[in-house]
């Protein structure tokens, strides 16, 4: 791999940026690694980069080395509250492409007001882990095609982006679904994490919008978490998604932070 001297360190050692693999860079001062850079290709074909460095000069050196080797466009994700990191990326030519709000979602039906939600006529909820995989995958493909034709899956969290060879559901057991007759018409994905469960996706077929199905799915998912002793869940919503914003804020979800996706074209 190619190396280059980029700047003088704080001690007597030269500082060298080294590309240690196709997707990794190290900054070494003497015998110490003082910074790292990584590149990863998302399932939708976009190339995301990240840098871990304590000092601005180290960050800039890794960024220069990576940008000289990688094709545009490049993307990265930052916590909007981390102004130093955001500014560091902006100095290298990255600009904001979209914002994602993070929400703390209460599970108590007395707080959310979802305890009195009635299922739409003819709709039943199939609990997580009990859905028929074939029907679930068919619904997933329908919803994905509808989203791609509208806002596009680039507005979705990375974990629900299309996978190679058409694989879109890595773990069907995470999904509860709404069923109407012999069809699945809506789904919600809840992931149990160490600190807090995460609502990764809630979606309904386009021809079943405005029937209260999304609200019923959310009531079922949050109710299950509440009965298990979980006080709150976490979710992210793209700021352009007015329907999802209204759904979560309408049940008392509290905005708690935001993430920026930056791009360098």
TrEMBL record:
Keywords: Acyltransferase, Transferase. It is an enzyme of class 2 (transferase). InterPro entries: Acyl_CoA_acyltransferase (IPR016181), GNAT_dom (IPR000182). GO terms for molecular function: acyltransferase activity. Residues 123-265 form the N-acetyltransferase domain. It comes from the Bacteria. Its EC number is 2.3.1.-. The keyword Transferase applies. This is GNAT family N-acetyltransferase. The lineage of its organism: Bacteria, Bacillati, Actinomycetota, Actinomycetes, Kitasatosporales.
């Amino acid at each position: 791999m190619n190396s280059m001297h980029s700047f003088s360190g704080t001690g007597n050692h030269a500082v060298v940026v080294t590309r240690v693999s196709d997707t990794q860079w190290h900054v070494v001062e003497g015998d110490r690694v003082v910074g790292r850079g990584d590149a990863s290709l998302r399932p939708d074909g976009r190339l995301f980069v990240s840098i871990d460095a304590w000092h601005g000069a180290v960050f800039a050196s890794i960024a220069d080395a990576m940008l000289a080797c990688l094709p545009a466009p490049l993307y990265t994700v930052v916590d909007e509250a981390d102004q130093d990191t955001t500014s560091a990326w902006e100095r290298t030519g990255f600009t904001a492409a979209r914002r994602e709000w993070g929400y703390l979602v209460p599970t108590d039906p007395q707080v959310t007001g979802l305890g009195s939600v009635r299922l739409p006529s003819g709709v039943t909820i199939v609990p997580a882990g009990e859905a028929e995989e074939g029907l679930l995958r068919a619904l997933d493909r329908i919803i994905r095609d509808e989203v791609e034709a509208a806002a596009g899956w680039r507005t979705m969290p990375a974990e629900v982006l299309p996978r190679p060879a058409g694989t879109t559901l890595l773990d069907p057991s995470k999904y509860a679904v709404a069923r109407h007759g012999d069809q699945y018409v809506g789904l919600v994905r809840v992931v149990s994490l160490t600190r807090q469960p995460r609502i990764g996706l809630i979606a309904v077929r386009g021809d079943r919008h405005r029937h209260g199905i999304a609200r019923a799915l959310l009531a079922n998912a949050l109710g299950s978490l509440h009965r298990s002793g979980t006080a709150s869940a976490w979710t992210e919503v793209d700021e352009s998604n007015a329907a999802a914003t209204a759904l979560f804020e309408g049940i008392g979800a509290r905005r708690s932070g935001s993430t920026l996706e930056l791009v360098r074209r």
